[in-house]
Amino acid sequence: MKDTGTVSVCFVHAALEGLIEHGHDPAPVLRKAAIPPELLASPRARVSPAAYGILLKVIAQVLDDELFGQDSRRMKVGTFALLCRSVVHAETLGKALERMTRFFGTVMDDVGATVSRGDRTASLVLYPRAPGLPRHVFLYETLLIFMHGIACWLVRRRIPILRADFAYPRPEHAAEYHVLYSARLRFDQPATAITFDAALLDLPCLQDEQTVKAFLRDNPENMLVKYKNVASDASRVRRLLRGIPPTEWPDFETVAAQLSSSPPTLRRRLRLDGTSFRAIKDQLRRDLALALLADPAARVADVAADLGFAEPSAFHRAFRKWTGGRPGDYHRRVRDRG
């Protein structure tokens, strides 16, 4: 089963903040990304990474700002490409991160960035340059994803985040952070930072000018799904289930045994990851449904059967709960867009 992942509608709202504050109508932008406006009224709704990636690109083009109107100063379109072409010439990850933080410190007014290194751990730190800045936490969220994604790409491996700190209260969508960053989250901290093994700073950078083009073409979508937190127990359960058709998924006791854990222990660990076995299965069905319905030749009834729903009506109810819309409408929008 291909893991496409999905993006919470809360990040759609966040991405639109700067656009709306600059006086633009979000409807045409949503239309280009094939995201129905009514989806925004459903807090549980999700969109595909492809749709979200298009949304971010269109917002950046409309505002001529690759930080989507989140900083007081625009980061003009093309700046991200310049950054990538600069950091590939660094010898090590540590030098690349130093170059990256200086770069962002130059192009942003509201937030500064730095790299700190200790004996065992290192941190990529973001800090406000004045009280009350930035206006929205989405700037922090975006910068962490961008900087971590570039770092992982440079060394051709995911950099495990040991801990993620945030200089703001726990948001309602904090459960999303477990997948984006780390199982260990702390809020109301002095600074926003991601912490990782300091030894990784000495890894050589393995990209060059020739590979930048493909990286830019596939982003920001690629960074949203490729470098997610994969070390958690929830991720281990997801990986196990992805290799099995939903119609043949084992029960929880069997999954625990295959992961060399007892059911109570695995249940407790999943709870610490902010999820449950039932929620993981629900999320995997949701993500697979979006992937299958992206095929122009797909039939809704066949997708329902492939996902293990006894009746199409049960799939319709589940899909509406997941996305706020109907599977047939989603299939038509994706088909018409492509």
From TrEMBL:
Record-annotated membrane-spanning stretches: none
Q: Which InterPro entries match?
A: AraC-type_N, Homeodomain-like_sf, HTH_AraC
One Gene Ontology cellular component annotation?
cytosol
The question of whether GTP-binding is a record keyword is answered with no
In this protein, which residues make up the domain named HTH araC/xylS-type? 235-333
Alphabetized, the UniProt keywords read: DNA-binding, Transcription, Transcription regulation
What name does UniProt use for this protein? Answer: Transcriptional regulator, AraC family
State one molecular function term (GO). transcription cis-regulatory region binding
